[in-house]
């Protein structure tokens, strides 16, 4: 059909900041991305706002309650333009993050941001992070 418009999924990530450090999470699956590091988050489901999706994902993946702040960096295209990644700052309201779905969690200072292999799409977001950690 000539009027077919493919759906663009929005993937949200939370840059959880605490005492000048950001929480980095090592993916455990699937095999193609296991061992790469990311911001906790995932797909925004129909009927959900981006902030609601982030709060839900942080509960599911880390067992914490977060408050969402401001955007970090710009939109990053994923999957040949089929999805877009949007990252927001977040702060912990309740709980201590646990690796419920990730292989490992690490709190990184601004000097440690490059110490883990981030998912490739996260590079521009990580580059924009220092301003939020100082
Ligand atoms: N959560 C997250 N995903 C990222 C980041 N960077 C990046 O390229 N991605 C990609 C990896 C995945 O292909 C996709 C997120 O999918 P996901 O499988 O984690 O999302 P989800 O939790 O909603 O998954 P599911 O319910 O469908 O299993 O976005 C990031 O910083 N955080």
Automatic annotation (TrEMBL):
- Keyword Transmembrane recorded: no
Q: Name one GO biological process term.
A: DNA replication
Keyword set, alphabetical order: DNA damage, DNA repair, DNA replication, Hydrolase, Magnesium, Metal-binding, Mutator protein
State its Enzyme Commission number(s): 3.6.1.55
**What's the superkingdom here?**
Bacteria
Top EC class of this enzyme: hydrolase
Task: Enumerate the GO terms in the molecular function aspect.
Answer: 8-oxo-7,8-dihydrodeoxyguanosine triphosphate pyrophosphatase activity; 8-oxo-7,8-dihydroguanosine triphosphate pyrophosphatase activity; 8-oxo-dGDP phosphatase activity; 8-oxo-GDP phosphatase activity; metal ion binding
- What reaction gets catalysed by this protein? 8-oxo-dGTP + H2O = 8-oxo-dGMP + diphosphate + H(+)
Q: Which cofactor does it need?
A: Mg(2+)
Q: Does the keyword Cytoplasm apply?
A: no
Q: Could you tell me which residue ranges the Nudix hydrolase domain spans?
A: 7-133
Q: Which family does it belong to?
A: Belongs to the Nudix hydrolase family.
Name of protein: 8-oxo-dGTP diphosphatase
What's the source species for this entry?
Rhizocola hellebori
Its taxonomic path starts at:
Bacteria, Bacillati, Actinomycetota, Actinomycetes, Micromonosporales
């Amino acid at each position: 059909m000539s009027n077919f418009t493919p759906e663009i999924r929005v993937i949200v990530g939370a840059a959880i900041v605490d005492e000048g450090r950001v929480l980095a999470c090592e993916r455990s699956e699937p095999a193609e991305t296991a061992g790469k590091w990311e911001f906790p988050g995932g797909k925004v489901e129909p009927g959900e706002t981006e902030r609601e999706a982030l709060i839900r994902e942080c509960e599911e993946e880390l067992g914490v309650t977060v408050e969402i702040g401001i955007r970090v960096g710009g939109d990053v295209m994923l999957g040949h333009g089929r999805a877009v990644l949007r990252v927001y700052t977040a702060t912990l309201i309740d709980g201590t993050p646990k690796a419920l779905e990730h292989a490992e969690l690490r709190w990184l200072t601004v000097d440690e941001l490059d110490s883990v292999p981030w998912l490739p799409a996260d590079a521009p977001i990580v580059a924009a992070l220092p301003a939020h950690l100082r």
